[in-house]
Amino acid sequence: MAIPVIDFSKLEGKDRAKTLAQIATCCEEWGFFQLINHGISEELLENVKNVASECYKTEREPGFKNSNVVKLVNELVEKKSDERVDNVDWEDVFLLSDDNHNDWPSNTPGFKETMKEYRVELKKLAIKVMEVMDENLGLPKGYINKAFNGGEHQDEAFFGTKVSHYPPCPHPDKVNGLRAHTDAGGVILLYQDDEVNGLQILKDGVWIDVQPLKNAIVINTGDQIEILSNGKYKSVWHRVLAMPDGNRRSIASFYNPSYKATIEPAALEKEEKQVEDFEAKYPKILFGDYMSVYAEQKFLPKEPRFQAAVKAIC
Ligand code: OGA
Ligand code: NI
């Protein structure tokens, strides 16, 4: 079984209705899909790949080799223990956002410029993807984005880019690349390695690979889209396996609500008469509160998080 692949360029033109329907099915039944012909140039993607790999080699690898996770795995192996390391991930990661420009890696030529350009393009794509979701959910165009920007209060949505590498792991049975979780926020756009796999999603109780596909952007939806769609678009469990060969590059960009945005099932805000038949399956939460809960519970079942996030705004 493979993750569905959508030709995003078909949204323009005679195949629009069919493509919208395909994306609706992806959102409802998969929670993950891959976009091709998404409008981000191959040249830019190639540059992103190169600067990220170069950055890892020159600025990150020495730190990873001395990291806690490497020590913990080695200790278990030396002790011939049959335990696993289950509280940290075999991952090198840092975050890029508009707020932390000064902390972006600065010793890799072209890194800042390329990633800046990439983030501008990817943010536009995130907005287009959300507009498709608006349309498929029967919401006015721009609804999701407006909610993420704090509705009338206008608190800016958050757009972050996680640059990750999952280096080859000599003991992949001892540790995860990234432990299983659902994503907390809105829409996630992932540019993953062309060759090294490892990312899997849980579909109908079975872990399946998100197959590497050159120049594709993998889309998935987080817990806030689940709330907003009143459970129609469920956030899906995923994980990264540690792999014995290859250094897997993975660049995940998150389009999330502002911490000050309140998120609630969308039909609650629709016409009076529709509200009468509408049963909200999720509470209204403040995204900042949700994130406080998530910070503690990321790798635990998601259902209790929704209620746990409510208390602060009651
Ligand atoms: C994440 C995530 C997958 C990957 O950062 O939430 O699921 O391939 N990343 O890095
Ligand atoms: Ni994730």
UniProtKB/TrEMBL annotation:
Could you list this entry's UniProt keywords, alphabetically sorted.
Answer: Iron, Metal-binding, Oxidoreductase
Q: Does the keyword Metal-binding apply?
A: yes
The organism is Penstemon davidsonii
Sequence similarity: Belongs to the iron/ascorbate-dependent oxidoreductase family.
The record's annotation in PANTHER family points to: OXOGLUTARATE/IRON-DEPENDENT DIOXYGENASE (PTHR47991)
Keyword match Oxidoreductase: yes
Protein name, entry field: Fe2OG dioxygenase domain-containing protein
Question: SUPFAM superfamilies from the xrefs?
Answer: Clavaminate synthase-like (SSF51197)
Instruction: Enumerate the Pfam families for this protein.
Output: 2OG-FeII_Oxy (PF03171), DIOX_N (PF14226)
Q: Please state every residue range assigned to the domain named Fe2OG dioxygenase.
A: 153-257
